[in-house]
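Tutorial handout. Part one gives the primary structure; part two gives the three-dimensional structure as tokens.
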Amino acid sequence: MRVGLRQFKRPLCYVMALLYVVAGGLHFVVPDLYVQIVPPVLPAPLALVYLSGVAEIAVGLGLLVPRTRSYAAWATIALLLAIFPANVYMAVSMVTIEGTGGSDPSALARWARLPLQGVLILWAYWYTD
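Part two.
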């Protein structure tokens, strides 16, 4: 089984990198959607959205370069831990995201994001070697 997974390691790295670059870019395209899930106890929500967007793009690009892949993977884990409070806030506070064209996530989708963070952390950890 382990040999079978290894054959997917490189392609999945490119998929992960693309996901982070696209997700980071979306922070600049539709920042208002992300601002809504920043916990109100944090200062400067828009600045935090832009900062996390830059961080996502940076880790995505870093994952593409073999020399920086391990550092980028660790940075991805740190980023996922840093944004976890926003996902908890969105789930617990039942934030209604305005401007989604009626596609506001259900309660199940809000809570599903929390274990998904764990999966994403494990995925990034695969590249820390």
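Part three, for discussion. The mean pLDDT is 89. DSSP finds five helices and no strands in the chain.
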